[in-house]
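Example (one chain per record):
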Amino acid sequence: MNSTYIQSYKHDGSLHRTWTAVDVIEESDEKFVAINENTRIFESNNRSWIAREPALYYLYKHQYYNVIAMLRNDGIYYYCNLASPSLYDGEAIKNIDYDLDIKFFPDGSYKILDEKEFRANKKLYNYPSVLEKKLRDEIEVLIKLHAQDLTPFNLKENERLFRKYLKED
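Predicted structure:
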């Protein structure tokens, strides 16, 4: 699997977002690591846009999150989506988006995003309480991984992956 799509769905199975032509640069039993550069992203409302900066995607096979490391002039920003574990079905890497997000800034601060959307969709899609607990626990995991400078938040690892991609490009 070299170039593929990433497709994110909602809890009811409807398509939420599609990333076109991401390059998978590593895969293990734990995760896919993909990179995009000038990738078109399609939203469920038919809006589309092109990602403005190169980004690494850590799509975990067993955790309820994925992480996008966005390389910008002032540092790396991390956008973490609380989502089902990702799988590849021969067509795309797929997961279910559960609305909650956390963004880490280059200065080490972070912000939890989309609580209101999560509460609304929890009612709309009838998320089970065990799922909400799992997602809340995963937020704590992400905060700890970031504080300890561990993958996917390790600068040296991210630099290695960006260099690997540039050599293959």
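Caption: The chain has one domain: 3-168.
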